[in-house]
Design goal:
alpha+beta; 3 helices
Amino acid sequence: MKRGYFVDNGDEDDGGFAVVAPTAKEAKKIVYESGELIFGDTDWIAIRTHWIRDAAVIGLPIGMVTDCRDALIRGLYGSLMEYPCDKCGKDLDLTCYHGQALCSCCIEKEYKKEVQQSTKQKGIDNTQSRIREMSERLRELCEHSPTYPIPKHE
């Protein structure tokens, strides 16, 4: 069974690599043998593997994931540094937001749109609910009024 791993040298500031492998040991071996660990201590013992449980690795071959954006979207990376944003195209730090690699400014814009749409929908729902309540109240008032009876529609 294939799993997604994030492999690094234990130093949080240096980043790491997205790897698809059947085991953590195999993921560690793939990165170690690639020679890509050029930063810091690259001894076998220093290399750390982190299983990314929610990573979508279906369709990826065993080995290092070379497309950083794809690794981000699939959940293998938490963020990318200085990479082009899918919306504005600027080279900034990116996070995956609804299947897109977006910078914080674009995420904020998308979130505001979602909140506005949600608020608008809630407003429509609340208005419809309020209209029903007012109609029922009016019907009750009219039923008890001898001068203005309203026929019941069913």
